[in-house]
Amino acid sequence: MKQRLLWLIIFTTQVLAEKPSVIIVGAGVSGISAAVKLFENGIANLKIFEAEDRIGGRIHTVKFGDNFIDLGAQYCHGENVVYDTVKDLDLLEHAQLFSTPKMYYSNGSHLDNQLTQDLQKVVSSYDHDITRSKELSLGDAFLKKYNSTILEKYKNDPENFKLASDGLTFAHSTILMHEGAFHWSRPASGRHYKAVKGDQMMVWKQRGYDMILDVLLKRYPDPSLKIPIEEKLFLNKRVTKITWTGDKASVKLSDGTSHEADHVIFTPSVGVLTHDDLFEPVVPPRKQQAIKSMGFDGIIKLILYFPEKWWHDSDSTFFFLWDRKDLEGITKEFNEGPSKDGISWVSNLVALVKVPSNPHVLIGWVSGGLIPEMEKMSLDVVKKGSMFVIRKFLGRDYNVTEPGEVLWSDWHNNPNFRGTYSYEKNGYFEEEVHYQDHLAEPLTQGTTPVVLFAGEATHPTHYSTVHGAIESGRREADRIIALYP
Ligand SMILES: Cc1cc2nc3c(=O)[nH]c(=O)nc-3n(C[C@H](O)[C@H](O)[C@H](O)COP(=O)(O)OP(=O)(O)OC[C@H]3O[C@@H](n4cnc5c(N)ncnc54)[C@H](O)[C@@H]3O)c2cc1C
C-alpha cells in the first residue's frame, strides 16, 4: 500500500512538472537499468519496446536439469556494479572452476606436465605482455608471444615441441571463446577493456544471472517494493524505424503502429546496429565509423544433462587439445554437420565445465568461424558430435554415460542479437580513441538529445559485460534526468 502511494506521488509530480515522454528500445539489462533510473527520478511516462517475448536480452536463465542454467551471461567479473547491487543479499559465490582444470589429448591421454601448465598459463593471460599496435591483430600479437615463450622453451624437446605446436589450435579456440570472435585475426591487439578488481569468476547461488533483473526491478528480496514496470513494457514489439528529424522522435513497430516520444534510448546490440537500417535519416558518419570499428561475432553454449553423472566430484573443467593428425582425419570418424578445410565443427568444442548449482549438467564452450552454420544443426547432430568428442578425449579414463536433454544456444542467428558480445576490431585501434564513446553520442535536434544510445558496446572500458551494460543504461537515464531539473 505504502509503495503504491509512493508511485502515485511520483506520477502526480511528473504530471505537474511536465516530465518528458521516453521510449526505450530493448528490455535487456541496459534498457531495464535505464527504465528503473528514470522511474525513480519521476520520469514515468515510459514505453519499453522489446522484440523478444521476455526481458533480459543476453541474460537468459532457463529451467534445466535439477535447477537453472544460463544460455547467456553467467559470471560476474569483479566487484563491479552487479556485485555492489547484490553484495548484502548473499547471492554470489566464487566458481571453483578453472583452478584445477584437466587437459586431455585427442589420443585419450591426460596431459599433466610442465608444458600443459605453461600452455594454460599463457592462454589464460593471452592479452598480457603482447605487442599492441594498430597494424597487429590479437592473433598475430599472441603468436609472437607464443613463439618467443612456449615454442622457444621446448624447441629442443621433440615430444613436447609437438604438443606445444598442437597447443596453438587450443589457444586459438580458447581466445575466440573469450573474445566472441570468429577468428583471432579479427580483434585488435590493443584494447580499452579494463577489468574491475576482485574475483573475476563469481556465479549465482540461486537460479542464474536473471537474479540481477529481479534485484534491479526490486522484485527481490521484498516483492512488495517492486517497480511497476509491467504497465510500461511491451513484449514481442520489434522496432523497425526511428525517425529523429522533428522535436520528438517517432518510433515505428513491425505491427504497423507508430509512437512519439521526447527521447528514445536505443539499446540493441552492435550486431543489430550493423545489420538493420533503423534510422531516418541515417546516423552521422562519426557514429557509422564507430559501429564499423566494433566486432560482433559469437560463441555457442552447449548444455548437457547427464541423468547418470560420470565425472568425479573433484573435477571442474576439461580442456580438449587436438593432435594435428587427428584433426585432419576427423571427418573420417565423424562426418555430420559443417566442416571447413576438411576439419569438422566438433573440433570447436574447446572446454567442458561443471555448473556448481546444477550437479548433473556440463556446459560446453564452442567457438570459431563455423558458428553461423553450427547454430543451424539439429540437436541430434549436436548431441552425436559432442559425445563423439567427449568419448574420444575422456573415454579412456571415464565411463561416459549417455546425456538426456541437450540445449544449444543460437545468439548469432537470432535477428534480435546477431552475436554474443562486442570486441574492438583489428585495424581501428588507437590508444586515445574510444569508439564506444562515439557510439554513445546522442542524435540531437539543436542541443537536445533526441535519440540516446546505451548497451554494453557503448561502455568505454567495460564493453562486452553485464556491468558495462547496466552502467550505460544509467548513464543515458542521467542524461535525460539532467534536462528536467
Ligand atoms: C553466451 C554469452 C555469454 C556471456 N557471458 C557473460 C558473462 O559471463 N559475464 C558478463 O558480464 N557478460 C557476459 N555476456 C555479455 C552480456 O550478456 C551482455 O554484455 C549484456 O547482457 C548486454 O546487455 P544489453 O542491454 O547491452 O544488450 P541486450 O541484452 O542485447 O539487450 C538489447 C535488447 O534489445 C532487443 N532488441 C533488439 N532489436 C530490437 C528491435 N528492433 N526492437 C525492439 N527490441 C529489440 C533485444 O531482444 C534485447 O532484449 C555474455 C553474453 C552471451 C551472449
Automatic annotation (TrEMBL):
Stretch forming the signal peptide: 1-17
Classification via SUPFAM superfamilies: FAD-linked reductases, C-terminal domain, FAD/NAD(P)-binding domain
Residues annotated as binding FAD: 30, 50-51, 239
Cofactor dependence: FAD
Domain Amine oxidase stretches: 29-481
Molecular functions per Gene Ontology: polyamine oxidase activity; primary methylamine oxidase activity
InterPro entries: Amino_oxidase, FAD/NAD-bd_sf, Flavin_amine_oxidase, Flavin_monoamine_oxidase
Keywords: FAD, Flavoprotein, Oxidoreductase, Signal
Domain of life from the UniProt record: Eukaryota
EC number annotated for this UniProt entry: 1.4.3.-
EC class: oxidoreductase
Pfam families the record matches: Amino_oxidase
GO cellular component, one term: cytoplasm
Family: Belongs to the flavin monoamine oxidase family.
Entry protein name: Amine oxidase
Taxon lineage: Eukaryota, Metazoa, Ecdysozoa, Arthropoda, Hexapoda
